[in-house]
Amino acid sequence: MTPPARRHLIAALERTADLLDILGEEEFRARAYRGASRSLEGLEEETPELLAREFSGIPKVGKGIAAELSEFARTGSFAPLDAAAAQLPPGLLELLDVRGLGPKKIRSLWLSGIDSLERLREAAQGGELAALKGFGAKSAAGILENVEFLLEARTRQRLDAGLHAAEALVSRLADLDARVSGDVRRGLDTVRVARVTVTGTPEAVTERLSGVVEELERVPERPVLAGRLDGVPVEVAFAPEEARGTLDLLMGGSGAYRQELIDAAQARGLELRSRGLLRGGQVVPAPTEADVARHLGVTLRPAEYREPEHDGLWPGLPAPEALLQVSDLRGTIHTHSLWSDGAASIADMAAEATRLGHEYLGTADHSRAAHYANGLSVERLRAQLKEVRELQRAGLPIVAGSEVDILDDGSLDFPDDVLAELDYVVASVHSNFTLDAARQTERLVRAASHPLVTVLGHPTGRLLLRRPGYALDVDAVLGACEAAGTVVEINANAARLDLDWRVALRWRDRLRWAVNTDAHVPAGLQDARYGVAVARKAGLTPAHVVNTLDREGFLGFVAAQRASR
């Protein structure tokens, strides 16, 4: 097996220390694992090199922990973490994901009988949590907000999981004219169910999905079969050909959009139901969505624009054929390599980018403050720059950049003379997410206004279904980007999709944008499709997006941007 990356070793050491604190074990044991974690963070060697010497000679890594790490590197299992987790209720471990709760507070909750997110929500809502020592009303309110976020996240899937499930269903049901529908078709950042529509009968669907979809069963009083595919909730809606257009429309829009169509049908003496468009109880043939729209006398909205946020904007937004497509992206300018926490060389990342049809790859490895991600020192950055220039001379289409940490006060992690050596700069926040809104806003405004910052990376710091973005005045930050001419990133990693499409929609014509994969492995370069889905919901065209420029055009854009400041 491939040994786990050093960052996974570090995370396992930290989690082990947390669990030992929750268990109330001797403090020296937790300190030992945290000390070992800090030591591994300061190394530049990766797991294979560390394993070759059995983790010996590392400060604060004694023989016992070294042996445990060696076993972890060989088997993928960290024995002390497994042993600690086995002593705790499974639901209690979920509390580690709640912002504002550390191991000591979680132990206090456990001893008070609070051992799951559901029980914590109940305690926060009923005043029990506020009455506990060390908490209080303000703390309880903040914890309740974070618990609600995490519980809601349980009911949803990331877009990539939903899309993969929907595409798998479409492949199995291709002869029934299967089409992606629902949240996935509309390009929502998270989805409740991966939904597909077909022309056919429930028997035909069952025959093709038997043994493929788990728990497949008919939904009462709906033309839908539901189940799970690789853990993702799925639905297949079916209709005869004359009712297919109605089915696609009702399954392919928000609740508000569906109600708008139902009201339009009633105004014309019709009924719009999943079993068809009805007049006097009889089905009006409408095989396509366009047929339904014609009968209703409405303009058919593209799937991307079927949200309440688009009301009043459509049909003034660009037509679907004018919106950004993956094929419009000529460069990808936020990627990582073995130099920091990526898993491939720059040359291999560039080769994959070229294979996918991009004309150039931008390097953006982490800066020195991101020690947990093997961030580059000034010396290592210059060594990387030397490699990049050599690869350029060898004919590889590469652009030299860096993802530079925004420090607590809004300054950047590299000095200006170093930044000036780069072809472009992505500036991002990777720490101190809990600053109050005013300080966080000031921090990002200062960074976005820096004369050498090309792109503001993942602007709100959210991780979908894991943590909300940090508190800030996003409009103030984007206003600073507008004033300085700083490009705003739509991070295409399906775990982020940051900036949110709703915000991008409001600012679409006031800013320049970059759709970046933030890829850490070659396969991650294909995540561009998710960022493009966000851009399309925001009504962005190729002209809005700087990495639709060719390499020389992009470098010219950066030069003009710097000259104007």
From TrEMBL:
Enzyme Commission numbers on file: 2.7.7.7
Boundaries of each Helix-hairpin-helix DNA-binding motif class domain copy?
53-72, 93-112, 127-146
Q: Where is the Polymerase/histidinol phosphatase N-terminal domain?
A: 331-408
Keyword annotations of the record: DNA replication, DNA synthesis, DNA-directed DNA polymerase, Nucleotidyltransferase, Transferase
- Gene3D superfamilies noted in UniProt: 5' to 3' exonuclease, C-terminal subdomain, Beta Polymerase, domain 2, DNA polymerase beta, N-terminal domain-like, DNA polymerase, thumb domain, Metal-dependent hydrolases
Reactions it catalyzes: DNA(n) + a 2'-deoxyribonucleoside 5'-triphosphate = DNA(n+1) + diphosphate
Obligatory cofactor(s): Mg(2+)
| InterPro entries in the cross-refs | DNA-dir_DNA_pol_X, DNA_pol_lamdba_lyase_dom_sf, DNA_Pol_thumb_sf, HHH_MUS81, Hlx-hairpin-Hlx_DNA-bd_motif, NT_sf, PHP_dom, PHP_phosphatase
Task: Name the top EC class.
Answer: transferase
Where is coiled-coil annotated?
none
Name of the protein described by the UniProt record: DNA-directed DNA polymerase
